[in-house]
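Forwarding the complex inputs:
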Amino acid sequence: MSYARAMVVPAAHTSVSTTTGIPNGKLGMWLFLASEVMFFTGLIAAYLVLRFSHPAWPGSEGHLSVPLGTANTLLLICSSTTIVLALAANHRLPAAPGAAQAGNQMGAVRGWLVATIVLGLAFVAIKICIEYAAKLSHHIVPSTNIFWACYYTLTGFHLLHVLGGVVFNAMVLGYTASPAAWTDRGKRLELAGLYWHFVDIVWIFLFPLLYLF
Amino acid sequence: MSASSGSPVKKYLMIWGWLAGLMLLGVFVSEAPILPISKAAIVGLVVVLSTIKAGLVALHYMHLQSDRRLLAFIAIAPFLLLAAVLALLFSTRFVRL
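Prediction (whole assembly, two chains):
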C-alpha cells in the first residue's frame, strides 16, 4: 500500500485549470457556499423580522432545551476541529508514493474522518431522536404556531445539510481505502472540510437565535 | 498556506478551545442574569460572540486568512448583498411591518 499526498494546498502547486489560480473544485465549492449563505440568511432574516415584530414572542410555549442545544453545538465545533485535523494529517503525507510513514499518516486521516462522521451522526441523533421526538410526542408541529414553524424550517434545513455533509465525508473516507483512489480524489477532503465548516458556522448562529433568545 | 508551514495542529486545538469557551460564555451570559444590562444588550453580546466564532472558523479552519484573496471576496459578497437587502427590508420608506 502506498499513498501519495492529495495536494490540496498550496493551490498554486496543484494542477490548475482556471485563470484565477484556484482549482476548479475549490472555487466551485466557495461559490456554492456563497449561495448557501444567501439561502440561510434569507431564512434567518425572515425569522428575525417575525421575532422583532412581536416582543413577547415566543413566550413560555417556545422553550427549547439549552443543554441539548449546547451539546449539539459542542459536537459540531469538535467535528470542525477533527476534519481540519484530517486535512493537517493529509498534508503530512509524503508527496512521493511509497514512503514508509505514509501508512501511519493515512491512518490518522482515516481516524479523524471517522471521528467527524461519528460526531455528525451524534448531532443528527440528538436532533431527531431526542429533540424532534420530544416535540412531536407533545403534538408540537410546524403548524402549531409561527415560532415552531420557524424552528422546524431553520433546524430542518440545517439538519439536511448536516446529513449531506456526513454523506460527503463518508465518500471521502471511502477514498482512503485505495491508494490510487486517494491520489486521484483525495483532494476532495478539503472540499468536504469547507462544506462541513460552513454547516458548523450556520449552527453557530442558529443556536443562540433559537435557543438563547 | 498556513497548514503547510510548520505544525498547525496546536493552532487548530487552540482555536477549538476558543470556540468552545466563547460558546459556553454566550450560554452563561444569556442564561445566568449576572450582567446588569438589558435583554437587548445581552442578545447583542451573544450575537457578537457568535460572529467572532464564525470568523475564527472561516479564517483558520477554512484558511481564508492565508488563501487567495478572491475566495475572501466570494465569502464576503453575500453579506454585502444581505446588508443591502436588510437595509431595504427595514426601511420604513419601502416596507411597512
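Residues 1-5 of chain B have pLDDT under 50 and may be disordered.
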